[in-house]
Amino acid sequence: MEAQMEMLRLSDNKGFLVSDIAEEVLDRFQNSQQEEHHNLCATVGAISQALKEQGLSLSPVAYFAASVSSFIRLIGDPSSAAGDPDITAILAFLSVLLPRVSPSVIRSKGALFSEGLVRVLEHGSLPADGEKAALKCLSHMLVIGDKVDWSSVSPLFGVLLNYVTDHNVKVRRQSHSCLSDVLQSFQGSPVLVGASEGITSSFERFLLLGGSNPPSSAAGEPKGAREVLFVLVALKDCIHLISTKSANMILKYCIVLMDMQQSGVMRSIMEIMQTLCSGNTSNFSAKLLLDLLCSFALSIPQKEKSADDMASIVRLLNVGIKKIYSLSRETCIVKLPDIFISLRGILSCEHEEAIFSAAEALKSLIGSCIDENLVNQGVEQINLYAVGETRKSGPTIIEKICAIIEGLLDFRYCAVWDVAFQIISAAFDQLGRSSSQLMVGTVLNLTELQSLPDDEFVYRKQLHECLGSALAAMGPENFLSIIPLNLKAEDISDTNVWLEREGHIFSARSAEGLIYSLWSVLPAFCNYPTDTSSSFKAIHDELCNTLRQEPELHGIICSSLQILIQQNRSVLLGRVDTPGEELSTPVRKAKEMYTMELAQENLRALQSYSSKFLSVLSEVFLEVPNDSGGCLQSTIHSFAFISDKAAIKNFFKKNMIELLKVTKQTVMVKQSKESASMQVDNLPDEDFITRSRALRLDLAVSLLPGLDKEEIDLLFSATKPALQDEEGLIQKKAYKILSIVLKDSEEFWSRKLDELLQLMILETASCHFSAKRYRFDCLFLLIVHISKEPSSEQKIQEFISAFLTEILLALKETNKKTRNKAYDLLVEIGHVCGDENRGGKRENLRHFFNMVAGGLVSETPHMVSAAIKGLARLTYEFSDLITAAYTLLPSSFLLLQRKNREIIKANLGLIKVLVARSKSDGLETHLKGIVEGLLKWKDETKNHFKAKIKSLIEMLARKCGLGAVKAVMPEEHMKLLKNIRKINAHKERITRSQVGADSLYSRTSVSRQSRWNHTRIFSDFGDKDGNDECFTENEGTLSRTSFPASRAWLRSRRMHKLLKRGLPEDHLDQPEDDPLDLLDQQKTRSLLRSSFKPKRKLELHGDEPEVDFEGRIIVRDEWDKPKKQKSSLDDISDIKSLATSRSSTKSLFRSQRKRQKTESGWSYTGADYTSKKASGDLKKKGKLEPYAYWPLDRKLLNRRSDRKAAARKGMKSVMLAKNVKKLEGKSAARALFLTMKRRGIK
């Protein structure tokens, strides 16, 4: 009692005062409906009230002293604690209170409380909630207690350890958590060994108890077996916290328990091992852990294993082997072949998750455990017996692993060859050059798979990728020594020409084809080569000669040279890869080898031959009729970066002299055409001169990286006359050159800005339409540079005044690229005016918007519609302008009254932008005006835009709700809203029915980045289904689930796609505005296949029910049953439509008329002239001469002979057999003459 009063006096120490914990407990549990919470609140309230009455502060120490005093008083007789709820409530309060009491106070004054806890827990009279609270208090006392003397800790720890096997699951889980916390606090202290031995001895005791006692009749299991499982579950969280000796003992016992093959025991052991392998501790024997992992690996092939169990074991093997390798490499590599065999066996199972886990584990172990020393051992062993000596020793570990990997190409694994190819590729990448000795058999087996027919082998692409990995790892020389091209073979099928196209089969049956195939691998050889400095000298002459003589190889050679230059320059400039970019192993290794010194040596070798290549490339560039893809020009541009500046300048001056000569010839030709008296002999063709002038300009700008200030000024001087040329080609080249110079030369800006502005203004009227795209590039760069200058507001206004009309009119250009440039320029001007970080203001942006709106008062519809498009684009980009755009709505609705379709399309696009970009609350304010304005204009014009108006109404309904739109909708247009509601409801039903149809695919939301799509906004027709997808980058993407699919999954997906090929919507995945590419055979065939309806005979046989095309059974009366008749393909489609029709007799009559027209081929066959009473034809007054016409019938293309025979019957109406015999052997002209003569036609 004296000790507790002393604790109460300690509460006066201000260092321990915190917030009133009793109030916190009461606030938390006073509204609870559970009885134990009511008891807790009552007990805490009584303790708090008692402290207040005694005048003590409500500190944690005071609460602790009062609670312990009450606890000791109540447990005087432990047997009575079971029926006293106050003890449970006090223990619950103490479990919350103890962490807030100073540990020094608890250590000095908590001995009595510890003894009481031990006494009440050992007696076992507490309810489950009381035991949980007591265990929390006990663990806290152990955590903060003295950790020097095991004898003082042993009583408390023994009690905690006894509750690890408690039969109440809640109490048991609480004890496991407390045990983990206690062991964590024991780390580095002397008592850890005693605690670990206590856990081990308890585990041994239950093992002996379970092994010595027979199973009880009630439970059906030995006494102690369940306790063993409970201890294993507890060790899952604390195995890494006990001593090394105890951990190794437990691992030994786990190896013995593995022989039981009990799923629960194996799962618990697996969790223990997962804890050991995943953590950073090493308090165990690597050999024991490896033996345990091997036991799990041997247990995998059992058929009763589920997919989850197999996947869990595979993941454990992956983590465990890498852990053991990091601890003891020599111990690990001995067992690697056994682990690889077990993982390979999983690939032949039927569980997708297990297959994926095994493949990932194999690739991970290949990358982590196959090191250089292991590979060198195998290579040395192979080289030792390469001379032909008899091998006395067995295969090395790496040879065994390579043989196991080669076994993946066995036909047992044909269903997962795509996964096997990935594993083999990982092995090639890891082995590198040594794979040419260790994996020769694998390469040969891969080559044999290439000969399989396509219908039996569906992984051709994956095979070629795997062979590509082998080629990159071994090197071309070693690879071709294993699989030679064999070009001298007499039979073309014996050659390996397919190797030359990097994964594409190329049928090279001629010498030219073989040459092209060999050249096609040059870019691959130029990808990070290490011998450029020494080997480029040997091939540069051949490259130059080929450029002169073989035009079809220009692209290959030029791309190869560009790869060499760009890769070495990027290394020299210190450019890093894009963050998140995934690099293949060969590329990553090659980049690691590419040092600054190596890049300098390579560029030095390329630079020594740059003059020769520039001469050859420019010569070929000026001679070839077409530089496909600009490869020659871009290669000249790349060489200009690394060549000597003096050589570049000299080469540039020579080109400019030739350009001057060509320009003079152009002037002479124009003068000769204008003056008839002036005749100049030997003048070249005008088209030839124009083309030569354009090529010279392109060649000059290609040398820009090597030019200085004087040369750039000379190029600009030569470009200015070209800007005024009448030829569109020359103007286009001039503006393109000017835009390139403006992009690449910052120094040129400061000197020529005013001159450039004046030049752009002067050439506004004379600009050819084909050059506008590059002209807008120049204007874009000009406005960007002007905005960077200080006090540029006046220049910006002058720029807008000078070019705004031209920019707006360009929004109506036919060329899409020109329109896009005009829109970009308009937006950039808006940012320059409105962005504060660029010196702009919001007032300037609104002023610019009003200037664009000034185009609405123009007299020409073309300019009015262009201004509206500009307003729509600015409104779309800048949310600050939405309010200003709403003020233009009355004018917009007035413009809708005009019958000009150009203006109407633009206005509807503007309204669509406003609806899409406005928030729902702001849109509701203008909702009535928008709806009435859309529906009140003239019907004769509105009929052309019904789909677009409906799309706008649907957008309004989605934004504001159907109820809001219905409130402002005119009564005469309610049917439109009703139709929209029905369509949306139908779509929702379809969407709900399709949810979960394919579990491997799911709709995921992606970032909805804004993308302006003026083609969809201002189109003639409404967007399909009323969707506003023109305002978003991606509405959603189909993404796979977490694991990639293996062979079986891919096969099911492929069959699913094959089944869907007949649906037209599955083939027409391109945008509605894009034309169908008729050169694409796959799309064309798919479209043709989808255009035909599935044909099904509707004739009924016996008691078979009549079914329509949607699968519904049709019930007919006896008098209404259709008669059986032989019908053509057109008849079948008509019968189908009759069977599914719910229309009236009038619709049936229409169908009969349509069938009559179809049978006649929709053409006049001349049957009207046939005489019904006599043979021959009749002449009719007011009609043409009698004739007969055989209409084209698609049944002639049918494969069935009976269909063709039915189609050929129409020939009888054209010619009689007796007349045909007379015309046999005659020419077409003679036959026509005899026919006309017989009919009396002259």
From TrEMBL:
The UniProt record lists the RRP12 N-terminal HEAT domain at 19-282
Q: Which InterPro entries match?
A: ARM-like, ARM-type_fold, HEAT_RRP12, HEAT_RRP12_N
Coiled-coil portions: none
Record domain RRP12 HEAT: where: 349-499, 503-622
Q: Pfam families, from UniProt? A: HEAT_RRP12_N (PF25772), RRP12_HEAT (PF08161)
Q: Which family does it belong to?
A: Belongs to the RRP12 family.
Please identify the protein, giving its name as recorded: Ribosomal RNA-processing protein 12-like conserved domain-containing protein
